[in-house]
Amino acid sequence: MLTVGEAAQRLNRCVKTLQRWDRVGVLVAQRTPTGRRYYELSQLETWLGKQQREVVRERLAYCRVSSQAQRPDLKNQREVVTQFCIGRGIANVEYIEEIGGGLNFKRPKFVDLMDRICAGSIETLIVAHKDRLARFGFDLLRHLCTKHGCELLIINDEKVSPEREMVEDLMTIVHCFSSRLYGLRNYKKALKVALST
Questions:
Q1: pLDDT tens digit string along 102-139?
Q2: What is the pLDDT confidence band of residue 84, given thresholds at 50, 70 and 90?
Q3: What is the distance between the alpha carbons of residues 148 and 118, in angstroms, rounded to a whole number?
Q4: The dihedral of CA 47, 51, 57, 60: what is its sign?
Q5: Choice among 66, 67, 121, 161 that is catalytic
Q6: Residue 66 is a catalytic residue
Q7: Can you tell me the distance from the alpha carbon of 15 to that of 17, in angstroms, rounded to the nearest whole number?
Q8: Are strands 2-3 and 37-39 parallel, antiparallel or unpaired?
Q9: CB 123 within 8 A of CB 91
Q10: Are 106 and 133 in contact (CB under 8 A)?
Q11: Are 92 and 82 spatial neighbours (Cβ–Cβ below 8 Å)?
Q12: What's the pTM?
């Protein structure tokens, strides 16, 4: 018997994905008398064998803001993506929302998303603007999606002049490093207070 967490680890998926698959009948879990989901190893092995022949491809929408202060913008971003999906007739979309800087490639949900793309399980990835996925290296991410059969849809793909793009990139870098410097100052103050007591 495997818990949902153990099964998710074996399948290289997140727990929420397994819970959703159970609800829609993709991979139905067994239940304990108290209603907890569990899987048998033979069930997972059978499912994995079937998946090698028939891959379940998902549609995802990724929404991101840089800080907690921008959390209201996350809701607006999701609304824009939802309207886009309705307009295009794209159904059964899983939404991933994350708070983290666009220069940080260690964001947990972003890393999971990249793993899923590389596994070939994502059919379509939708983002409001390319910098929501990553501030730099977008062309590499687009290539990764193409290589693994993932269609990447950018809602607002407006082109800006090279000068304006460079200014925006420099402002992002300055903001990132000034935030780190400010964080170091707070750390030094806390350390000084702790050592003086």
A1: 778 889 999 999 999 988 889 999 999 888 888 778 88
A2: very high
A3: 6
A4: positive
A5: 66
A6: yes
A7: 5
A8: antiparallel
A9: no
A10: no
A11: no
A12: 0.57
